[in-house]
Structures are given as structure tokens and as C-alpha cells.
Design goal:
alpha/beta
């Protein structure tokens, strides 16, 4: 861990001064953000920004345990760029020992064992009052937490799939899901981003008194500075995986291009479906209108684009990419699933069924709508009014304090 004498704080960090929270009352926090297979998503960015706010006044004992590959992704997105004094950075063995990395499963085993040992060292040395685990951090820190029962565990559940498709199974039992359920049973608090996730956890046997629903999500408004003259551009941001449905947009493009031959479409992300997206756009003769690339700071594109498309299978609320797009004044086309209605209605976009025809019709309708600028501004104003970082920060601080005091949850 390297140390810098000073920190640089942007508008998001300075919100700590506005919340009127006595930082001395906050328990000592160790946030664990460890990911052996790194990908940058909305949850990672959101909680890293919360950590920035936790340490914004300096002179605190909070720490973030993070692997270097995840840190690099966050720093490329403009997060945690000046916080070395509060970071405990792990360089996984497979990144340093090339002979290990050549044997994938062995490398994963070595990385996991080494990370578990490091978690134990950090918790044993630091003795935090609260450990807040994110990503695969719970699997790696759970052994250490069981050996330190006085440390309170807080978990965040922001995924709509309790059992990952990559979850290894033994005798038909998902090892990851079983471990996660066990950990939640031993947690002081489990935070969920939606009531649907909360209900799912309760049906799995998690004590309802432990489960708290976040009041809202947020994004970094300081990065969202929409230009006055928007480009005729449609944007998709997210991992290229089935649950995000990027291929649905690809199949909708011929109809859109036929009506608006000057349109540009950006797929910003990375993932296993990238080759298929490229192939589909070539086969449908729309590739010349399409850009496909990873963008660590999507707001650079969203500030200029006109329409954002969010096509997740189960839920679009409270997608970080969707919030960013709205704050950057984009009209929205979104699948009508879950609690998407909380972000998208007729004032700022169109909710659709998950078909290429419906997606194409909605994009064309928005492009043809003389009131498109008003819809775009309605998106931005909704985020500014309802989805502030200050509200989420207050929620997290109260969550930590309640977990430490073991008081009944607040919703």
C-alpha cells in the first residue's frame, strides 16, 4: 500500500460536508472489493464512490481492500485516482508468476487461497468494526470473518441472479450460492438495491430483519454535462452478456437505419457476445453505422448522444448506466420489466416488450418526436431531483451504524 500526503476531492467527495453526519460516529469500515475475473460494472463504480465519500475528510481509519486489476479499471473511469493512502492493493500471484497463469484452474486456485490469506491478515491486523463485502469478496473474506466473530459483516445484494451461471456445482448444489446464503445468515445487515431482490432473499430463508432496501441509487453528476446540440446517436452501455440483451438492439437496427440513414449507434462495453454483435451487424448490412468498443468513462459519449437503450431481461432499475444516460440528458428506450417504471415513463422515454420490432419502433418514434429535447431534459431532471449521492451516502452510514449497534433495520 502506497501513501500520499494529500487527497484531491471533486464535487462528489465534498458531499460529505453537506450531509451533517458526525464522521467520528461511523464505525471503522473495511470495504472488500476483490474480483478474480475483473469486469467494471455499475455496482463497482457506485460503491467505490461511496468509499471516496467515506474518506473525504481524511484522517480516518477506513480502508478498501482491492485487487490491482479492479483498481486499474476504476481509475480509468476516474474513480479512486487520489486515494492511495486508504487502499490496500493486492497483486494476485497469477499476475506476477507467468508460469501459474498458464494453467487457468490452478491459477484460480492459487489466487483464491492467497487472497483468503491476505484477507485474514488485513482483518486480523486492522480489526475493523465493519467489513462490507462486494463482488467475490465475500467468498474470499468469509473464512477470516468466521475466525473474527466480533467483526460485523455487511453484504450488498445488487444482482438479480442469486446463483451465477458460472457457479460451480457439487452433487447438484451451487457452491457459490450456498456460501453466499450462509454468509448472509451470519451478516449483521444485507443491503439490496430493490424490493424484488429483498423479497427473493427472504424466500431463501434470510431473516427479514436483516434485509434493508436502499432508498435509491445514484451516479456522479459532476461527469454528466450534456451538450446543447445533441448528436443523432443511439447508445448501449453494458457488459455484452445475455442478460443485458445487446443482440436485441443489433437486430433492431435495420429498421432504424432505413428510417434514419444518418443515425449512429454505439455499443460501449465488452464481453462474450462481442463477436456475435459484430457478425450480426455485418450480416444485416448496418455495420457502417455501428461503433463497438470499451469506454471507461461512458459519460464522454452520453453527454453528446440523444437516445439510450437499456434492454435487460429482468430489471433495468437502478442501472448505473441508465442513471448516467438520464443525467446526461438522453431519452430512454427500455424493456418493460421489474421496476423500470421508476426511471422510465412517457415523459422521458418508452418502455417496450423485448422484441426487435418494438425496440426499433420506439427508437424511430423518439427520433421523429418534436418533443425529444423535452424528454431528454425530463430524464436529467429526474436524476437530479430523486437520485442523489447524498441520499445514498446517508443510507450507507446509517446501515453501518445500525449494523454495529445491532438495532432494528430502517426502511
Amino acid at each position: 500500500m502506497s501513501v500520499k500526503n494529500g487527497l484531491e476531492f471533486g464535487p462528489l467527495n465534498c458531499l460529505l460536508m453537506l450531509t451533517h453526519i458526525d464522521t467520528a460516529s461511523i464505525p471503522t469500515i473495511l470495504m472488500v472489493m476483490l474480483c478474480l475475473r475483473c469486469a467494471l460494472g455499475g455496482a463497482e463504480k457506485q460503491y467505490a464512490r461511496i468509499f471516496e465519500m467515506l474518506v473525504a475528510q481524511g484522517d480516518c481509519n477506513h480502508r478498501l481492500l482491492i485487487n490491482r486489476s479492479m483498481l486499474k479499471l476504476l481509475q480509468a473511469a476516474g474513480i479512486l485516482a487520489h486515494h492511495d493512502a486508504y487502499l490496500i492493493i493486492l497483486d494476485l500471484p497469477s499476475m506476477r508468476w507467468r508460469w501459474v497463469a498458464k494453467v487457468r484452474y490452478f491459477a484460480h486456485f492459487v489466487d483464491s487461497c492467497w487472497a483468503m490469506w491476505q484477507c485474514w491478515l488485513v482483518i486480523h491486523t486492522m480489526r475493523p468494526q465493519i467489513v462490507h463485502t462486494l463482488l467475490t469478496g465475500i467468498y474470499l473474506s468469509l473464512p477470516a470473518l468466521l475466525l473474527h466473530p466480533r467483526v460485523r459483516l455487511v453484504m450488498s445484494a445488487y444482482s438479480y441472479k442469486f446463483e451465477s451461471a458460472r457457479d460451480r456445482r457439487l452433487l447438484g448444489i451451487g457452491l457459490g450460492a450456498t456460501t453466499k446464503r450462509f454468509a448472509m445468515g451470519h451478516s449483521a445487515r444485507v443491503e439490496t438495491l430493490t424490493s424484488a431482490i429483498r423479497d427473493d432473499l427472504i424466500t431463501r430463508g434470510i431473516d427479514p430483519q436483516k434485509v434493508t432496501v436502499a432508498p435509491s441509487s445514484f451516479t456522479d453528476i459532476s461527469l454528466c454535462q450534456p451538450v446543447a446540440a445533441k448528436q443523432k446517436e443511439v447508445v448501449f452501455v453494458g457488459r455484452f452478456v445475455d442478460i443485458k440483451n445487446p443482440l436485441l438492439l443489433a437486430h433492431a437496427l435495420p429498421a432504424v437505419v432505413q428510417h434514419h440513414p444518418d443515425i449512429s449507434i454505439c455499443f460501449l462495453g465488452a464481453g462474450p457476445l462481442e463477436a456475435q454483435i459484430r457478425q450480426v451487424t455485418r450480416d444485416l448490412n448496418v455495420a457502417q453505422h455501428v461503433t463497438i468498443r470499451f469506454e471507461p468513462q461512458p459519460t464522454r459519449v452520453l453527454n453528446q448522444s440523444s437516445i439510450f437503450v437499456s434492454l435487460q431481461n429482468d430489471e433495468n432499475y437502478p442501472s448505473q448506466s441508465l442513471l448516467e444516460a438520464m443525467a446526461c440528458a438522453n431519452a430512454i428506450v427500455a424493456t418493460d420489466v421489474g421496476e423500470t417504471w421508476r426511471l422510465v415513463d412517457k415523459t422521458n422515454g418508452i418502455r417496450v416488450s423485448p422484441t426487435a420490432e418494438a425496440v426499433a419502433a420506439a427508437i424511430i418514434a423518439l427520433l421523429d418526436d418534436p418533443a425529444l429535447p423535452q424528454r431528454q431534459e425530463a430524464s436529467r431532471q429526474r436524476v437530479l431531483a430523486q437520485y442523489s449521492a447524498e441520499n445514498f451516502y446517508k443510507h450507507i452510514v446509517r446501515l453501518y451504524c445500525d449494523a454495529q449497534a445491532n438495532v432494528p433495520k430502517h426502511n
